[in-house]
Design a protein that fits this description.
The complex is a heterodimer.
Chain A (H helix, E strand, L loop, with lengths): L12 H7 L4 H32 L30 H37 L1 H16 L2 H12 L3 H10 L3 H14 L3 H8 L4 H37 L27 H28 L25
Chain B lengths: L1 H27 L7 H4 L6 H11 L5 H13 L13 H36 L4 H15 L2 H15 L17 H35 L2 H8 L4 H23 L1 H14 L5 H11 L2 H29 L7
């Protein structure tokens, strides 16, 4: 039922609006959005991992009859200036982009999880120092850190994943710390300690498993953000270097060729947008599913936090 | 209150030290070192490089160099640009107005729109309008800034010829406001979309949260008009968290500005950072990175203080 803001009555529709849980239709819609995201992700991962193996086309293969040709039945996404098929390169590029995304997420969440767990469990000066390091890393705008580290560390696939991971561990660390702080005085942790379990064992067996849910949510969204970060670094020339295709570096020269072959700029970007959107939708759905205390509702429906829980690429 | 502010400022000192050291450390570990720019210049001999290293103190331990740099930086001296020998502060200062023009316009536009869209979609929760805004903002949050810029260029410059694609003005000498604004449109839209998408969700959720409070029910029960309830009771309280979050957007926006300025050849600080990094002009690279990070720290302090000031529920110690 739509509620018009101009209706001046205090009872009726407005009052109804406040106490009524979201309609079944709405809940279905929300699940549908998450479902669409999950299906899109599955399709993209499936196409990018298996597609190249099935198609057996070299991404560097050159069609000498078609340079800069627009999308056609022969090349459904057109060809680039060297006569390479854009669709095949999108599939291969997707492998790299997804790989970088997942690796960066694992590094970021893993590192952040460890830092947060240690800081939260030991508290005191360990906690103070760790949290100031988090503050430092959060204060340098992400792109500046990404570019500086990229010049220092390198631009291989694993280098880029490491660099992005190194700029993504701060929110996982804060999340983990908060979880551990709230868990460490709970009875089952006290019980483990009373039974003589060591610190490492308590952290690994009692605390961490209970703190994993919010990290999974953050991790899901981080994958998408890492793919965006990779694309920005590649666009600026500090990402994955050609001839290895990634969705990001396929866009490196897109601006130059824009008047001649706009499809080269459109398709890789569309893939990035769809993938990031899908990760965000799935992440929101996971948050709803994994957070027993949260109200029904996506990230955007929840009470605003003073600090964002999700580290975005900042760009 | 003053104790709270003092505490907050004191806490930021180790953070500032950490930031400056980290940036200094990374920049001095770049391949080829701080003088990389000169290494490949044929007219400069090895002896001259050694001389430069001694003159600039680059042969000293890194910590000593850092301390010396910090001491100078505290007095406003960030060294000299390797490109033209001008003081870094001057070089950066020349580019600040362009970046401010871009960022401030984007901020004002995105927040104004975010408030309108956010409040409207909260009031009409689950309406078709709300649905459209939700879909658009989710899309907006998934758009890489540079790609959005390229798409805007494709549609509005390459195809429609409505707007220019680079720079701040068409003529190098003359300045006209209309011309400047004409150049400003695409970069501002590029930069503003992400913030608009994110903050309209923020305003919406903040508004929804407030609308569930008891005092809103009380206000309605008093028989106030819906308009009064919305704008005098709900919106004011909903603004509170949003206003402080605005301060924290600075870090996102400055990163976005680097990308936007690169796409549109906008002669601002972000473009300068990118160019300096490519040239190996490390004094300028360090200067800009430190400057924007310090700004982020300041914004954080301001956000905390403002929050404590305008929300009487916050207990500050």
């Amino acid at each position: 039922m739509d509620v018009q803001p101009a209706v001046p009555s205090a009872s009726g529709p407005e009052a109804d609006l406040q106490i009524r849980p979201p309609s079944l239709l709405r809940r279905l819609a929300r699940h549908r959005a998450a479902l669409v995201g999950a299906v899109a992700l599955a399709a993209i991962v499936f196409l990018c991992t298996l597609g190249p193996a099935v198609l057996h086309i070299n991404p560097d293969a050159i069609d000498f009859t078609a340079f800069n040709s627009p999308p056609s039945w022969r090349h459904i996404m057109g060809t680039d200036d060297l006569g390479r098929d854009e669709f095949v390169r999108i599939l291969y590029g997707g492998r790299i982009s997804l790989l970088v995304g997942f690796l960066a997420m694992l590094i970021g969440v893993g590192l952040g999880g460890v830092v947060g767990a240690v800081a939260g469990y030991f508290g005191g000066s360990v906690d103070f120092v760790a949290m100031r390091v988090v503050d430092v890393a959060l204060s340098i705008p992400r792109l500046f850190l990404l570019l500086l580290l990229s010049v220092t560390i390198g631009s291989g696939v694993f280098d880029i994943a490491l660099i992005i991971g190194l700029t993504a561990w701060m929110y996982p660390a804060r999340i983990m710390r908060a979880q551990v702080l709230s868990l460490r005085t709970r009875e089952f942790v006290e019980a483990a300690r009373a039974m003589g379990a060591g610190t490492g064992r308590i952290l690994a067996r009692a605390v961490v498993p209970n703190a994993v849910a919010p990290l999974i949510v953050n991790g899901t969204i981080q994958v998408g953000q890492a793919i965006v970060s990779e694309s920005i670094m590649s666009f600026l020339g500090y990402g994955i270097q050609p001839p290895t295709p990634s969705w990001g570096n396929m866009l490196t020269n897109a601006q130059t060729f824009l008047p001649v072959s706009p499809w080269l700029a459109i398709f890789p970007g569309v893939m990035i947008v769809i993938t990031v959107l899908a990760f965000n939708l799935v992440g929101d759905a996971l948050r709803d599913a994994l957070d027993p205390t949260g109200q029904q509702g996506a990230r955007a429906n929840r009470a605003p936090r003073r600090r964002r829980a999700v580290a975005t690429a900042g760009t | 209150m003053w104790v709270y502010i003092a505490r907050r400022v004191l806490l930021s000192i180790p953070v500032l030290l950490g930031i400056t050291f980290l940036i200094f450390f990374i920049a001095h570990n770049l391949p080829g070192g701080p003088l990389a720019m000169y290494l490949n210049t044929p007219t400069i001999t090895h002896a001259q490089i050694v001389h430069l290293e001694i003159q600039l103190g680059l042969n000293r331990p890194l910590l000593v160099q850092y301390a010396a740099w910090l001491w100078q930086a505290l007095q406003g001296n960030f060294g000299h640009s390797f490109v033209d020998g001008q003081p870094v502060v001057t070089v950066i200062g020349q580019r600040v107005p362009a970046t401010l023009e871009l960022m401030l316009t984007a901020i004002v536009l995105s927040y104004a729109l975010a408030f309108v869209l956010g409040v409207a979609s909260a009031v009409g929760q689950y309406s078709p309008f709300d649905y459209v805004v939700t879909v658009l903002s989710y899309t907006g949050m998934a758009l890489p800034v540079f790609w959005l810029g390229i798409m805007l260029i494709l549609v509005f410059a390459v195809d429609l010829h409505w707007f220019p694609t680079f720079g701040m003005s068409s003529t190098p000498t003359g300045y006209s406001l209309a011309d400047n604004l004409h150049h400003l449109v695409l970069p501002v839209v590029t930069l503003a979309v992400y913030t608009l998408a994110q903050e309209s969700r923020y305003v919406r959720s903040s508004m929804l949260e407030v609308m569930q409070q008891d005092y809103i029910r009380t206000a309605r029960a008093k028989g106030l008009t819906e308009r009064t309830v919305l704008f005098r009771h709900a919106l004011r309280n909903a603004l509170l968290p949003v206003v402080t979050v605005m301060m924290l957007d600075f870090a996102f926006l400055i990163s976005g500005a680097v990308v936007t300025e690169t796409v549109f050849a906008w002669p601002g600080m972000g473009r300068l950072f990118f160019d300096s990094l490519q040239q190996g002009n490390y004094p300028v690279v360090i200067g800009i990175a430190v400057l924007v990070s310090v700004m982020v720290v300041l914004m954080n302090i301001v956000a905390d203080v403002v929050y404590a000031l305008i929300d009487p529920r916050i207990q500050y110690r």
